[in-house]
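Re: the request from the purification team.
They wanted to know what the chain is likely to look like in 3D before they choose a buffer screen. I agreed to run a prediction and write the result into the notebook, where they can find it.
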Amino acid sequence: MRTLLDIGNFGLAVVFGLALSARDAQAQQELQSTEEDRSCSCRIVLSLDLLLRSSSTAAPAISPSAFVARGPRGSYVVGPSFSPGELLSFDSAGSFRQSVGRFGQGPGELGRVRFVGNLSSEVVGVLDGARLSAVGSGGRISAQVSLPPGVRAFRFAGVGNGHIVVNNYMPGHPAFVLLDSSLTVVRSFGPRTPEESKSDSDAIQYWVASLGANRFAAVARNYRYGVEVWSTGGTRISQRTVEASWFERWTQTDLLAAGPGAPPFPRVEGVFADSLQQVWILGVVTDRRAPNRQPPRRSGSGARVVGEYVAPQVEDFDTRFDTVLDVVDPTTGRVLVSQRFDRYLQRFTSDGRIYTTSEGPDGLLRVEIWKPRIVQVR
């Protein structure tokens, strides 16, 4: 497999997906990183590609972790995170089009939304509770199925040939469930919760991205940093640890010992596989200016003292988090390019764009769509 360095001007000439015309003065804005990885003479630059704003009549659906997916013909679908209700649909120019769905548990209705992503390039999927819904080209919910017993999920991804991989976080069950285009279960496979902590569902939470040819990359969200390559037939093809200074391994025990209000541990919050089958990984870490995590202080009796560090109420995630983008060779685990940004970036869309959501000055939903590119350092 060719790396970024093998293909010369890739970083200068190629951008993911179709470039949208600038329709906002801010569309020319570029977000530079706080540091450069000189070992590969490359850096990652993010350009503001599009700005989405809900209209005054649209439900705001404001959340610092709202979900964004690509719809048909370059459109976008935005869904609230862990909130009941409708989705918002925008056209390729960023204009609000319509609401999708309504709150409820009946046909065509949505409950508490857990995830919004792509079942395929043209079909958006929605997880609400234990149901998976498909949103078709007309902006209407075209199919809804209940996840089978023993399957609970926070995320999924279309992996080609009409197949979808759902990450099952149910303790004691395989981490991956393969569905066909009718949303019927084909097979379950993958790791289970470890013997020493069988109830720890965080141990089997993964982000998934299609690698084509009936394969997908899986990157654990918590505890460890690495890339696994699986076939949709249920075979793990490879498993590689990724060495990165920003990700220090941690455990559930560490999390419990840190206590409420402690600075967050590093986590992976998104993956994307490009046309060269390189895996882009989006990690979120504590802002450099945040207090360092300290070991819990003990009282004279040996009990942990709670409340030594209390994080402020955070409305602007940029003040609490930095974001790291790594481009990784999944066959070796080698980091090809790594970049840290002094702001919070949320997740990838299915075509490799990066988005952030916030509440605008007018109190309505604001979504920034960023386009990443790799440039050579001259």
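For the purification team: Confidence is low (pLDDT under 50) at residues 1-28, 57-62, 295-314.
Please add any questions underneath this entry.
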